[in-house]
Amino acid sequence: MPSSTDTGPHAWLEAARDTRHLMAFRARTVRRRGAAFLGLAVVVVLTAVFAVVPSRVDLRSGVSAPFERALAALETNLGAAFAGFLLLAVGAAMGSGGGRELLSRSEAAVHPISPVTEHLGALLLAPVNLAWMVQAWTLLAVTALVTPPANLVGAQLVVLAWVLTATALGQAAGWAVEGVRRTARGVLVVRIGAGAVVVVLAALHLAGLLAPLARSLPTTWLADTSQTTRWPLALGVLLLLTVAGLVVGARPAAWALGLPPREELRVQSGVHEARHVPEPRWGSADRALLRRLDRGSVWRSVGMRRGLMVLGIGPGLVALVAGLEWGTVLLLPGLTASGAALLFGVNAWCLDGKGMVWRETLPVSSADVFDVRALVVAECMAAVSGVTVVLALLRNGLPPLVTGVAVASCWLVVLVQVLAIVMTWSVRSPYSVDLSSPRATPAPHAAMAGYAGRLSLVTTLTAMVFTGLAALPWAWAPAVVSLPFLAWSTRRLLRARRRWLAGDERARVVLTVAAV
Amino acid sequence: MSQSPAVVVRDLHVRFGDVEAVSGVDLTADSGRATALLGRNGAGKSTTMKVLAGVVPPTSGSVTVAGHDAATDALGVKRAVGYCPDVGGLVPRATPWEHLQLSARLRRMDDWEERGRDLLERFELGDVAHRVVGGFSHGMSRRLSVVLASLHEPDVLLLDEPFDGVDPLGVEATLEVVADARARGACVLLSTHLRDLALEACGEAVVLRGGNRVAAMQAGDLTGEAYRALLD
Questions:
Q1: Can you list the alpha helix ranges (DSSP code H) found in B10-73?
Q2: Which residues of A touch B145 (CB under 8 A)?
Q3: DSSP string, A102-161
């Protein structure tokens, strides 16, 4: 009988077979197959668009000098962007406790699922991540923009290979970090290590060394080679590295999964002393107590707490260190708010888990329950996107009036927009999920991919509108344009609330989330 | 104490899409009495309990709980009822004390802490009162659900599978809660598969099959053979 930590050739064959079975099982449980296929088709089409269309646009003729400079900067920094993708892959795997799971912990507990299967499953699910998709599309688009059309195919093959390589290497690193985190003082070690990395990067940036260092990484050779006829060499190297990362990653996966999840166990066994009933200055004490319970459900979850911190600090640090222009910063609140919503907001009632039936027996108005839950979702989104905006403010200083109004308006619009969308989804398509593991997601993976794609598309398009408005000389324009956006989203939010207030609809949500 | 029955169900139908979970249940339960709700899996016991708790609205029929119409006054029903759901029933990242605090606050109970502590001790949950319930065993969760259902001394106590996975001491404490509720004049409805415990706790029994009521009798008359015959 093979050992559960076996990572030999036999284990790989078995794991590949098991992964196929698990994927097929998950595929059979997709509720809306038509929508899933449509979503997949949209992703493929968008990938093709980003990979090809920018190269068809003739940017070199008749453009302004600043645009020429921007294009040259993109070309020079493509290698650094490759390295950035690797950093993202490592961060995503670290944030999700090693990687996403094909079956939830409670479902998987009774099945003989090996660590190698878990490793393969996490790799397959890595693309179901808003940041992963956006970054991959960005790499494809920038490569298409700066590569001569004759070499485009080779260059894009190298980009796709790099995406695979970085994901495999990031996954291996993620498992290793998760293993360390599960040792006796691992949580502290990982926090100190992550803090040290941030401090070193910031110090390098302040010393003016970060950009030259990033450009001197082997990824620059990769980016340069991909645009020449020697691209097969780069492709070969990357494929070798991918296989190596894939095989090597199984070791830390087996190690990490063999250790008890200390951080989660500490939360479960930790003592939370009783506090008095809150006496708020405004609003009722009932709502304040409901709010406290909901906030506790968010911040006592290892996965959500970790995700919110990464989303809050990560993009903000990029804005701080890289000195992003306000035009780029405008895109970030929507994306970070979407990321926060994807932690639990897309299935907001799942915070209560099986306790939702008990919650529903409490004599409290259903409107209060909805309002409090929407407020807690909004708080999380506002907090993480707020950190990004504040750090950008620290880096860039006060923006011109019209830009400031555009940033504030855009931030408010995307918050209300995302809130309305996710509360609608929460009522329309609830799921029963167990979020006790940081590897869990609030909805099935196919649904999460759809949610991530739709949220990123909506918020990016909205931010682009406000980027355009920021270029106009009228400071009032962004504020005025935000009004129809806000009216539409408020209407949508109220519609979701009305649906929740209907007894039979609410019962459907309650019974589905509690799985009874 | 009201002379009219605390729970009156007439021709209750509950439909989830194409599935009819309850099809024409009639049920009456008096104050000061405990009634066992028996039947096989899928007989409609838990769904009927959820309607009585104000969680699921009836599709048709009339349901009155402590004088409140479940179809039009779900909030009134929730104030009058204490409900222990059949599965889970606890917010995973909240502590038992936080559950009690919320329940008491929303029911406007001022001096609940002593009773809360006493119930937790009786169910041997005193030493885990401030730990999140996500780490609880199944039996501990069931015991806490009974504590939550009985904290506010409701007019109608609904216990759905309260003995499931519970150790003998927990069973004993649950039987005490049922006896206390009866003694203070509350109506108790107890759903279970365990006939012997149902007979010990309750004076009357109602048997459901396929979403219908097939028998209502004194608990003492429900012998093993009679029960088995009603299930088939």
A1: 45-52
A2: 358
A3: SS-HHHHTTS---HHHHHHHHHHHTTSSHHHHHHHHHHHHHHHHHS-GGGHHHHHHHHHH
Cα B144 to chain centroid, rounded: 13
Q: Environment class of residue B212 by beta-carbon count within 10 Å: exposed (0-12), middle (13-18) or buried (19+)?
A: middle
- How many beta-carbon pairs under 8 angstroms link A with B? 130
Q: Do B97 and A274 touch (CB under 8 A)?
A: yes
Q: ipTM of this predicted complex?
A: 0.90
Reported as type and span, the H/E element at residue B215 is strand B212-218
Note the pLDDT of residue A314: 80
Closest Cβ–Cβ partner in A301, A363, A434 for B78? A363
Closest B-chain CA to A265: B135
Classify residue A290 by its DSSP letter: H
Gap from A493 CA to chain B (nearest CA, Å) = 23
Q: Mind listing the pLDDT tens digit for each residue in A115-165?
A: 899 999 999 988 887 788 888 998 999 999 888 888 899 999 999 999 999
CB B82 within 8 A of CB B157: yes
The answer to whether A272 contacts B98, with C-beta atoms less than 8 Å apart, is yes
Show Cβ contacts of residue A38 under 8 Å, excluding neighbours closer than 6 positions.
none
Confidence of residue A80 (pLDDT cuts 50, 70, 90): confident
| Helix, strand or coil, per DSSP, at residue B209 | strand
In the block, residue with structure tokens 């104050």:
B31
Beta bridge pairs of residue B81: B156
Residue A409 to residue A484: CA distance in whole angstroms: 12
Residue A349 CA to residue A513 CA, distance in Å, equals 7
Mode of pairing for the β-strands spanning B34-39 and B204-209:
parallel
The alpha carbon dihedral of B117, B119, B125, B128 has a sign of: negative
Distance between CA atoms of residues B40 and A450, nearest Å: 40
Tell me the shortest Cα–Cα distance from A1 to chain B, in angstroms: 31
- Chain A, nearest residue to B83 by Cα: A361
